[in-house]
Design brief:
mainly alpha; elongated; 434 Repressor (Amino-terminal Domain)
């Protein structure tokens, strides 16, 4: 992690917090009034984000700006993402009778 660029770390942390909220990148960008493509480039670590935008993002995530810089909470960059649990199958009703029977 020490060799990773600060912009990449910041972007990964923002993505981590946003996905934990269950909000899409596009919906979040709209919520905080940041262009979707610009926000995407922030999460990819391609942008040197202004303090104004750091505050907008922190407010949108409901965290203090300092939380966006807590890089020790990040998984390793090369770690595979956690698998998404499969959707639960709807329960089949029990004791159904056959028609006419």
């Amino acid at each position: 992690m020490a060799t990773e660029d600060i912009k990449a770390l910041f972007g990964r942390r923002v993505r981590q917090l946003r996905t934990a909220m269950g909000v899409s990148q596009e919906a979040f960008a709209h919520r905080v009034s940041i262009d979707r493509s610009y926000f995407g480039s922030i999460e990819r670590g391609e942008r040197n984000v202004s303090l104004d935008n750091v505050q907008l993002i922190a407010d949108g995530l409901g965290v203090p700006p300092l939380d966006l810089f807590k890089f020790d909470a990040l998984p390793a960059a090369d770690a595979p993402p956690k698998p998404t649990p499969p959707a639960a199958k709807p329960a089949r009703p029990r004791g159904r009778r056959k028609p006419g029977g």
